[in-house]
Write a structure and sequence with these properties.
With 281 residues, this protein is α/β, with parallel strands linked by helices. It has helices at 60-70, 96-108, 122-133, 172-182, 184-193, 210-213, 236-245, 260-263, 266-280, and strands spanning 3-4, 17-23, 29-35, 46-50, 74-78, 115-120, 156-160, 222-227, 249-254. The protein contains nine helices and nine strands. Helix 3 links the parallel strand 6 and strand 7. The chain is globular and about 50 Å long. Keywords: Hydrolase.
């Protein structure tokens, strides 16, 4: 369950804008920002944006996505653990599910009945796993009920530029990323050069992969978006995700698009937001 130093509606908040630290189920402080948005309809959803690896809520590309979505509803942005002003260390998509769960729970506390999670790259894998674990049709065999599952559930999911499987090293950017994560000198470069603090421990156990998660997301609507010029993950990744999701997912292959938030055109962000409003509304 998310806990914050500032509660929704507090007189200490600027009109329509609240920034505070949330507390995840495992005790990590997460920097989060709520913005009311331009849509005045009571049924308008709140968008919870999950950024990519080395991003944070103050990065220009994250702010650009937030501005685009704010035309259609309220927006929550946050920095994953190990990123920006948030505490902890990055686990590169594993325990980040708890960060997203805290942000979604907080978003619902502002009175929004419908929540859309939208993730990019690493964040794209997190929204898939989060949707499967918090409110999906099923969970891995032997898994325990996630804490605060009902409050942290999502009503629609958008995954942009996400991997389908873990440990992919088939492209030069992903080989560089693995060096950053797996090597002590790489983690130093990440900490001081990219402002991202990475946990030194390897996954144990290995978390549910995105392609294993997507069949468990239904009945929540799912949109998978990927560029045909993505330099990190080739097109077999989104196609694997869509095939695993079955009939409940839509797949958009975007001509000329590269990777994640930086590559998402304004027109695409507008189209994603309109899809989300129609599905979650």
């Amino acid at each position: 369950m998310a806990r914050s130093a500032i509660v929704p509606g507090s007189e200490t908040a600027a009109p329509g804008r609240v920034r505070t630290f949330l507390r995840t189920a495992d005790g990590v402080a997460i920097d989060a920002l709520y913005e009311r948005g331009a849509a005045e309809r009571a049924t308008a959803p709140v968008f919870v944006i999950a950024h990519g690896f080395t991003g944070d809520l103050d990065r220009p590309h994250v702010r650009r996505v937030a501005r685009a979505f704010a035309r259609y509803g309220a927006v929550v942005t946050f920095s994953f653990r190990g990123h920006g002003a948030s505490g902890g260390r990055s686990t590169v998509g594993d325990r980040e599910v708890l960060d997203l769960a805290a942000a979604v729970t907080w978003a619902r506390g502002f009175g929004h009945a419908r929540v859309v999670t939208a993730g990019f790259s690493m964040g794209g894998s997190v929204v898939l796993r989060h949707a499967a674990l918090y409110g999906g049709a099923g969970r891995p065999a032997g898994a325990t009920e996630p804490r605060g599952r009902a409050e942290a559930r999502t009503d629609a999911v958008v995954s942009v530029s996400a991997p389908a499987r873990w440990y992919y090293r088939g492209t030069a950017p992903m080989r560089r990323l693995h060096w950053l994560v797996m090597r002590p000198e790489g983690r130093l470069v990440s900490r001081y050069g990219l402002r991202t603090r990475i946990h030194h421990r390897e996954w144990d156990p290995v978390p549910l992969s995105p392609v294993e998660a997507v069949p468990r997301i239904a009945p929540a609507p799912l949109l998978i978006v990927h560029g045909d010029r993505d330099g990190y993950f080739p097109l077999d990744h989104p196609r694997m995700l869509a095939a695993a999701a079955g009939d409940h997912a839509e797949l958009w292959i975007e001509a000329g698009m590269g990777h994640a938030e930086n590559a998402a055109a304004e027109e695409l962000l507008d189209r994603i937001a309109r899809w989300a409003v129609a599905q979650a509304g």
